[in-house]
Specification:
The structure is a single chain. The chain has about 130 residues and is an alpha+beta fold. The protein is about 35% helix and about 25% strand. Strands 1-2-3-5-4-6 form a six-stranded antiparallel sheet, with helices on both faces. The longest helix has 15 residues. The protein is globular.
């Protein structure tokens, strides 16, 4: 099943990603957003109409699996923009992503188009840094 392969990929990525939360040295590069501005996996899932099954609960990212009438999808939240960018740089290119501030949703395009109505975000089809 494709979703199992994606979940395994994300688990490996989480294990390899830096989680020390170090600063940017005051260089003004930004990327660190106050926790109050970001939504949790649970908050995103509630907006999408599901209760997530948390699969990854790491210091720098969390991921949950959701299943709704719209279909199955994964919600991933990040503590920093740098962490999100690093994750997206290694994300599977064969699946589209719905991308919001410090979060992504991963599934088929059809499911993400339906979920987007409730979550907002931008649909990224091939290059995960560029809107599709």
């Amino acid at each position: 099943m494709t979703y199992l392969r994606i979940a395994a990929f994300v688990l490996v990525l989480a294990a390899c990603s830096p989680g020390d939360g170090g600063g940017n040295g005051g260089n003004g590069g930004g990327g660190y957003v106050a926790a109050a501005q970001s939504l949790t996996v649970e908050q995103l899932a509630a907006k999408a109409g599901c209760t997530p099954h948390i699969q990854i609960d790491a210091g720098d990212l969390r991921q949950g699996h959701c299943e709704t009438g719209d279909g199955e999808f994964f919600l991933t939240t990040f503590t920093t923009q740098e962490g999100k960018d690093a994750w997206m740089d290694t994300a599977p290119e064969y699946n589209p992503h719905l991308v919001g501030p410090l979060w992504t949703a991963l599934s088929s395009r059809a499911v993400l188009e339906r979920v987007q109505r409730r979550l907002g975000g931008d649909l990224h089809l091939k290059d995960h840094r560029v809107k599709g």
